[in-house]
Specification:
- The protein is of the alpha+beta class.
- It folds into two domains: 44 residues, no CATH class; 51 residues, no CATH class.
- It contains five helices and three strands.
- It has a three-stranded antiparallel β-sheet, with no helix packed on it.
- A hairpin with a 5-residue loop joins β1 and β2.
- The longest helix is centred in the first third of the chain and has 10 residues.
- One of its GO terms (molecular function) is nucleic acid binding.
- It comes from Acrobeloides nanus.
- This is Integrase zinc-binding domain-containing protein.
């Protein structure tokens, strides 16, 4: 590792040739390669920058021109605990409608989340 630092963090061949000027190490190329792979300075400089993955194609309902809320996504959340005006406690749920084309949102309050309402 000291020869690698003396070689200014050079790659395998340069480091190996500097070692072989003084010593012969059996399987020297493999040992030098493993030492360079574990060098933190070389890891930092050989790192590949992060790249965002390629984006997929948009679905047809998101890329064609349509009227707002023609293609809609729906999500329901809750329950949220509330206190009514008369002091009693209750639960409410929220429902979000999202337009798939324009990304407009409409949020409404639902007082009962049973299947019959």
């Amino acid at each position: 590792m000291a020869e690698h630092v003396k070689a200014l963090h050079a790659k395998n061949n340069v480091t190996l040739s500097m070692i072989r000027e003084k010593y012969w190490i059996p399987q020297g190329a493999r040992n030098v390669m493993n030492a360079i792979k574990s060098c933190p300075v070389c890891k930092k400089f050989d790192a590949v920058p992060f790249r965002l993955p390629k984006m997929g194609k948009l679905p047809l309902e998101r890329s064609t021109r349509t009227r707002p809320f023609e293609y809609t996504g729906v999500d329901m959340f809750g329950p949220l605990r509330i206190k009514n005006q008369d002091g009693s406690k209750g639960k409410i749920w929220g429902i979000i409608f999202t337009c798939m084309t324009t990304r407009l949102t409409y949020i409404d309050v639902v007082s009962d989340a049973s299947a019959f309402t």
